[in-house]
Design goal:
By secondary structure, the chain is of the alpha/beta class. The chain folds into three domains: about 200 residues, FAD/NAD(P)-binding domain; about 140 residues, D-Amino Acid Oxidase, Chain A, domain 2, CATH 3.30.9.10; about 60 residues, no CATH class. About 35% of the residues lie in helices and about 25% in strands. It has an eight-stranded mixed beta sheet, with helices on both faces. The radius of gyration is 23 Å and the shape is globular. It starts with a strand and ends with a helix.
């Protein structure tokens, strides 16, 4: 693609930041990624990605987008030991009191092909690809203090400070992309410079993660992925994924303010309350790697930059800095990838001053179905009062009947998994054909 301007700066080397840098490299002569961490040269956890210590899943739309940006990267990940999940028999999916059938085959298995790869390995490979781009450089161990605007409210530079010695410098730039995550300071920057801050859509989820990395003995567990969703009556769920090099992570999920044990015996006791004995026995036989890690996530937040009437020229925001979704559904990286695709399309349409508003509107279209699905799923497990009790009961009743029928019906099981993997909208489960299968399945079960 033709180079439209000279310089771009990305704040943050998260997955969202790396994808943004990849997009910008096609349109700008130089791209600098400013990252507060000193990035590891090996595959390891890093402080700036606390979520990487918990269960991580890249959904199909996200993996397809990343493959577009970095062709062949998943072949590299498989060669590095990542697993591919393309068979329903490899997974245990519990929904309420029911387990989706594991007898296949799916009608469109290629749509549900998933890669089981740890966040450190995935990020390391993507970062390696970005480092190889000739016009991209990294400035590590630095914080971006704030962008610098001229009198026409156009970004001209960013002020950067070294975390090692406190020295400040200015990086001249034509565009700045904020990819610093949930704690991004762009709203405060806007208000400090006379702009309106973005309205926030926010709702509490009261999520707690407690995770233990393990090495499960070979052959001890047939499934490479285990998911047991929390419910209104049991606000604790679990997920287990087998990653590369024999590593497996067990994550317990507490919703609606449910606190979880911070030690392995406590995690095992909690998991034994709702996971099958064979799975719990395999975890008990495993070798723990490190300690239990606990993380709290209070709320989902969507900053509506697409609704602002005024915005600095040359300032963009991406990833969790725009929309921070409940991580229990594994949509964060896919959301960032879809936003990066929206940015690429807007830049390809022409280098005009309105690229910011166009990008925010395009990103909002990608985020809307994710936000709605998250809100609906969280609604099912959060205690409520008043008029909301009736729709919650109806929603949970239908979900229970759907899961009961999907325990024997591979078509319903596939439809549910397509919804969970962002391939089809939740409304697809309410079509007449699906509803008839739910009724028939429950009649068969008596």
């Amino acid at each position: 693609m033709a180079i439209a301007r000279d310089r771009a700066v990305v704040c943050g080397a998260s997955m969202a930041g790396l994808l943004a840098a990849r997009v910008l490299s096609d349109f700008y002569g130089s791209v600098t990624i400013v990252e507060r961490d000193v990035l590891p040269e090996t595959v390891t956890q890093r402080r700036g990605v606390p979520q990487g210590r918990h269960l991580h899943q890249l959904l199909r739309p996200g993996s397809m987008a990343i493959e577009e940006f970095f062709p062949g990267v998943f072949d590299e990940l498989l060669a590095a030991g990542a697993n591919v999940i393309d068979d329903p028999s490899l997974g245990y999916v519990g929904v309420g009191h029911h387990v989706l059938t594991q007898t296949g085959p799916f009608a469109k298995p290629q749509d549900l092909l998933a890669y089981s790869v740890s966040r450190p390995l995935l990020e390391a490979r993507v970062r390696q690809r970005v480092r190889a781009l000739p016009n991209v450089t990294f400035s590590e161990g630095c914080d971006v203090v704030d962008p610098i605007l001229d009198r026409s409210d156009r970004v001209t530079a960013v002020r950067v400070v070294s975390r090692a010695d406190g020295q400040q410098r200015e990086l001249a730039t034509d565009v700045v992309v904020d990819a610093t995550g949930r704690s991004a300071r762009t709203p405060a920057f806007l208000r400090a410079h006379g702009f309106e801050g973005p309205a926030e859509r926010r709702y509490a989820v009261g999520l707690t993660y407690a995770s233990q990395w393990l090495r499960i003995p070979d052959g001890a567990l047939a499934e490479s992925v285990v998911v047991a969703a929390p419910t209104l009556e049991r606000p604790t769920g679990a997920g287990l994924l087998a990653y590369e090099d024999g590593a497996t992570v067990l994550t317990l999920i507490g919703v609606a303010g449910r606190r979880l044990p911070a030690d392995l015996p406590g995690l095992l006791r909690s998991a034994a309350e709702f996971l099958p004995d064979r799975i719990v026995d395999a975890v008990r036989a495993a070798e723990p790697v490190g300690d239990v890690v606990v993380q709290h996530y209070p709320a989902s937040v969507w900053r509506r930059y697409d609704k602002l009437r005024r915005f600095p020229h040359g300032l963009l925001v991406i990833g969790d800095a725009v929309c921070s979704l409940n991580p229990v559904y594994g949509q964060g990286m896919s959301s960032a990838a879809l936003q990066a695709k929206a940015l690429r399309r807007c830049l390809a349409e022409g280098d005009r001053d309105d690229v910011g508003p166009r990008y925010f509107r395009a990103a909002a279209k990608k985020l809307t179905p994710l936000w709605q699905a998250n809100r609906l799923n969280d609604f099912a497990t959060a205690p409520t009062t008043g008029w909301r009790i009736v729709p919650q009961r109806l929603f949970n009743w239908y979900t229970d009947k759907l899961a009961a029928a999907a325990a024997d019906d591979i078509v319903l099981a596939e439809a549910f998994m397509r919804m969970a993997n962002l391939i089809d909208p939740p409304a697809k489960l309410l079509t007449p054909s699906m509803s008839m299968r739910v009724v028939a399945g429950n009649l068969r079960r008596g």
